[in-house]
Amino acid sequence: EIRLVESGGGLVEAGGSLRLSCLASGFTFSNTDMAWFRQPPGKRLMWVSTIRVNPGDATYADDVKGRFTASRDNANNTLYLQMNNLVPKDTATYYCAMSGSGGVSRGQGTEVTVSP
After folding, report:
1. What is the reported pLDDT for 54?
2. CA distance 84 to 87
3. Within 13 Å of residue 36, how many CA atoms lie on the same side as its CB?
4. Of the candidates 69, 73, 9, the residue with the CA atom closest to the CA atom of residue 39
C-alpha cells in the first residue's frame, strides 16, 4: 500500500521559514519522481514543485521559485520542501504526491498558515 505522510506545517509570520517533510512507503521511492502541490483555502489544487529521481533535478512554479527548495533523502524515503521568505499567499494545505501504475497518490496534507 502506498503511503505518503506529510508533516512540518504550522503558523509562521511573513518572512519566516518552514520545512515540510513527506515520509513515503509502499513503493520504490528512489526510482520515483515526486511532487509537491498546495491548495489555498477555497481554491483549487496547484502544482508547486517536482523533484526527479536525480535529487538535483527539480522544477518550481513561478511564484515559489527562488524561495522554495525541494530535496529528497532516498536512503530514508523522505521528501522535503524548504520554504523561505514566506508570504501570506503561501497559506495552503501542502501535499506530496507521486504517480504510479495505480494512478496518482497523495498524502493527507499539512497546513501552512502565513500571517501578515
Report:
1. 79
2. 9
3. 32
4. 9
